[in-house]
Amino acid sequence: MTIKSSGPDRRSDGKTDKQKIDKVVAKARKAQAEQEQTYREQSLKIHPWICARCGREFTNRNLHLLTVHHKDHNHDNNPSDGSNWENLCIYCHENEHRRYLDHVEGEGMDAGESRQESLTHNPFAALKGLMKNEKDS
């Protein structure tokens, strides 16, 4: 026997689960926007309207393209003196976050480093000895 549902599942308070989820998401987005506005507005008052990376200058007309970057990547670290913020254009900001994610995904390795502990074979291990023998002959 198949029971057909005539509509979305309703909770005892009359709201659907989707409505409840939408309400929670909207509330979280609003709280995040309010927090961003406060530190963004502070940063725009403290720092010049210039991208700290590429030097692009901003005016009231294009200020929406200037973002606030947290130097330590911790969005909860918002000192009122602005020491953890720098203004970056949207392009440099995206680049900075991509570089940071690449660094994290690479387990903190810098360019040119390799993981020596994972190597098990050294094809040139005997080269020094071979070169020494060749010099002696």
Sequence-ordered SSE layout with sheet pairings:
Layout: H1 17-46, E1 66-70, E2 85-89, H2 90-105, H3 127-136
Antiparallel strand pairs: 1-2
Description:
This protein is mainly alpha-helical and 137 residues long. It has a domain at 18-109. It has three helices and two strands, in the order αββαα. The chain has helices spanning 17-46, 90-105, 127-136; strands at residues 66-70, 85-89.
Short structural description:
With 137 residues, this protein is mostly helical. 41% of the residues lie in helices and 7% in strands.
Overview features:
137 residues; mainly alpha; two-stranded antiparallel ribbon; 2 strands
The mean pLDDT is 81
**Order of helices and strands, N to C?**
HEEHH
Major beta sheet, strand line-up: 1-2
Number of helices: 3
Calculate Rg over CA atoms. Answer: 28 Å
Residue windows where pLDDT falls under 50 for at least 5 positions: none
